[in-house]
Amino acid sequence: MSKNVRALAAKCIFNVVDKGRSLSDELPHAQAQADDKDSALLQEICFGVVRFLPELEYCVRDLVDKPLKGKQRVAHFLLLVGVYQLKYMRIPDHAALNETVSAAKPLKQFHLKGMINAVLRNYLRQKPEQSTQLPEPVEYNHPSWFIKKLKLAYPDKWQTVLNANQQKPPMWLRVNHQHYSVEQYSHLLNEANIAHQVITVAEPTILLDSAVDVAKLPAFDNGAVSVQDGAAQQAAWLLDAKAGDHVLDCCAAPGGKTCHVLELEPSITMTAIDIEDKRLSRVEENLSRLNLSATLVSADATAADWWDKKLFDRILLDAPCSATGVIRRHPDIKWLRKAEDIDALAQIQQQILQNIWQMLKPGGTLLYATCSVLPDENKAQIEQFLSKTPDASLQAITLNADDIGWQILPDEQSMDGFYYAKLTKNN
Ligand SMILES: C[S@@+](CC[C@H](N)C(=O)[O-])C[C@H]1O[C@@H](n2cnc3c(N)ncnc32)[C@H](O)[C@@H]1O
Question: Which of the residues 91, 277, 334, 418 has the least number of beta carbons within 10 Å of its own beta carbon?
């Protein structure tokens, strides 16, 4: 494959949208084939096209004679790559157009060069104005099944959620309290001229004004700091493990929350399990960078065959979920996730919850977490569990006593969408 950035982008987007592969797997593969200097451009184009897919498809729909199918399908994505640059990037029009047209050859679509050139020129000439008549999936760049679910769940806020999902995500830092306080690390950032704010949700943490390469973060290699969204950081604070506790992190990979819990209380004994071996090795890498330790177990959390029968004081269940709260970070979720996945995920979540409840000590705490905004995986899930589990009670997290758990919507205090519920096992 050539090093043509637009060709690599079109192929990568084709693999995500048509082949159902994940953008976080496909992009590094494309970047490995590009020149280093083009890596950021490739990322911007791939994320941008996947984020604004329906809107870009709407722009070209009436400009092509007939839909591009089969072997020509990759040219469809090349057209979207072209329109994205013309609509959203600061590349001069003639450069974006010429570079996009010349990507046809490495994609083996040389015969479509003239058509691609004509469509992009027509787009520039006509630039269809956004009207209020746009179908909702085009206006909000989300699938209609998801818009429908959001409207039901958040009649007053669904548009805010959809708009938040289309923004570029901010970069948050988690300060390792074994090294520095947030205040001390904030000083180091000031000395390094890295603009940021200290934000307090449950505890103070750091939000950067713009993303930076981790290599530029003071003492990153020494484990002084990690990249983790503010919403995900709430898990360890809420779990509130105490010295000497026996803790289970269920569904732990890649280990962001495992490490945070240990940073706050290194004297605990931590067991971290995940069903995916490959992802478990990322937990190991993260622990080793931060000089922390845990017992890692590759196992299915719906079964108990891996458990030595020693009860846990605290359990964090960061359940497998639709990830609909982190769409701004992973826009491919909009196209990879299907409506029918939600019921299947809700079933697994309930199975895991019921299975690991037996592993919790009386008086112990289980923190249920998802990065979903859908009540089926969150509030409804906890209500169902409480109704079936007489020895479980819900602890309040928010100030509103009627809330079943804490639903954070995307961009609330700049955080990702997340859900937490804290359950106690009655003595
Ligand atoms: C939301 S991610 C966890 C993120 C992690 N807690 C963190 O903070 O870095 C969910 C994880 O659940 C794992 N998983 C999915 N089904 C599982 C199961 N049946 N048993 C154990 N782990 C499972 C996935 O492999 C994935 O790593």
Answer: 277
- The 10s digit of each residue's pLDDT in 229-275 is 999 999 999 999 999 999 999 999 999 999 999 999 999 999 999 99
Domain total in the chain:
3
Closest C-alpha to 393, from 423, 369, 368: 423
88, 18, 21: which is closest to 52 by C-alpha? 88
Residue 244 backbone dihedrals phi, psi, to 5 degrees: 80, -5
- Contact 33/10 with Cβ under 8 angstroms? no
- In a domain? residue 163: no
Ligand 1 center–CA 320 separation, angstroms:
5
Q: Are residues 195 and 251 in the same domain?
A: no
Both 215 and 339 in one domain: the answer is no
Which residues, including other chains, have CB under 8 Å from residue 175's CB and lie 6 or more apart?
181, 182, 185, 205, 206, 224, 225
Query: Of 250, 251, 287, 350, which is best to mutate to test ligand 1, by the most ligand atoms within 8 angstroms of its C-beta?
Result: 251
In a domain, 150, yes or no: no
Q: Which atom of ligand 1 is nearest to the CA of 323?
A: 1
In a domain, 157, yes or no: no
Element (H, E) at 422: strand 418-425
What's the domain range around 182?
172-227
Determine if residue 417 is labeled as part of a ligand binding site.
no
Question: What's the pLDDT band for 344 if we cut at 50, 70, 90?
Answer: very high
